[in-house]
Amino acid sequence: MADQRLSLQALSVLCGCNVELTSGASQITPQDFVNVVALREFYKQEGFRELEYPSIGTLSLQDDEDLYSSPAALTEGPGESLKQMVKINPEDFFHPQYDYDFTKVKDGDKTFLRGNEKYVRPCGWNRVALKVLQKYDDGDSWLGTGKDAWPVSYQGQNMDGSLGIILGRESQADDEPSFLDAGAACMVNVETRGRGVYSTPDIKMAEKYCKMFTSKVDGKKYKVVLQNRINPKSRKECNRKDVWLVYIPEGHNDLQTKAIVQESLRPYGLLLKQV
Question: Please, which domain of life does this record's source organism belong to (predicted)?
Fold first, then answer.
């Protein structure tokens, strides 16, 4: 099990807030958390500088990696102290019973399925489970292993629209000039430019785009990724291999955008990997 202080710092890095413990009720749920992470990335892509979220307030969308990369011996800088504070109760936010240490696991040729789709397990990572059972009106089948389960997706930061081109092409997407030229042309088309929230079924791709921070607990560097389930009815597959998009149409207001994210992504694990 990961040190709880390390988990709090990882949550802080992902959401851009100062996440702290409380003995009272949590200020946000795990679903709120994935909403904030996804919406921050989306609105940053759209050029916004702030995000308003119920129960938290105004969040800055500026890059904040440096605020969480100081060695443990240093005190917090003024920038970090200005971040919104979010309090969570570990009893209703984490679910230690379902923590899983994949750090020494090697799956090789083994195949795993979730919702009849391939599940690439996060080998090499340590998963801190989030408390999401019995939290949704449609039950827990989305989190299962059967045909009604939602596929697994990993949410990496800074996956932008250049990865999410939705093209009607039969050939495989690649980095050749012809594909990139076609992609650039499609980025100006509302139907194909991939406006929305990105994730991937491939943990290795998510790792390329994940955030990294220096722990205040042990001074070591860690990578952090969210492990989610994605609603197969909301997901669009992009021509760039292993990139999934939850599409948000032009003209949607903040409430409509939040509703799309909430209906499409459900979190269940915080993944940590020592560098």
Answer: Eukaryota
Give 130's DSSP letter.
B
Answer yes or no: are the C-beta atoms of 143 and 133 closer than 8 Å.
yes
- Domain hosting residue 204, numbered range: 4-274
Q: Which residues, 6 or more positions from 99, have their beta carbon under 8 angstroms from its beta carbon?
A: 1, 2, 126, 127, 128, 129
pLDDT tens digit sequence for 128-150? 999 999 999 999 999 999 999 99
Q: Which residue has the higher pLDDT, 158 or 56?
A: 56
- Listed in sequence order, the DSSP H helices in 189-249 are 203-209
Structure tokens at 121: 């397990």
Record the pTM: 0.85
Split into its structural domains, the chain has a count of: 1
Residues whose CB is less than 8 angstroms from the CB of residue 51 and which lie 6 or more positions away in sequence, other chains included: 36, 39, 40, 43, 58, 59, 61
pLDDT per residue as tens digits for the range 191-234: 445 789 999 999 999 999 999 999 999 999 999 999 999 999 99
With CA atoms as reference, report the closest residue to 237 among 172, 151, 166: 166
Q: Between the CA of residue 143 and those of 35, 81, 87, 125, what are the distances in Å? A: 18, 37, 26, 20
Q: Which residues of 204-214 are buried (b: 16+ CB within 10 A; e: fewer)?
A: ebbbebbbbbb
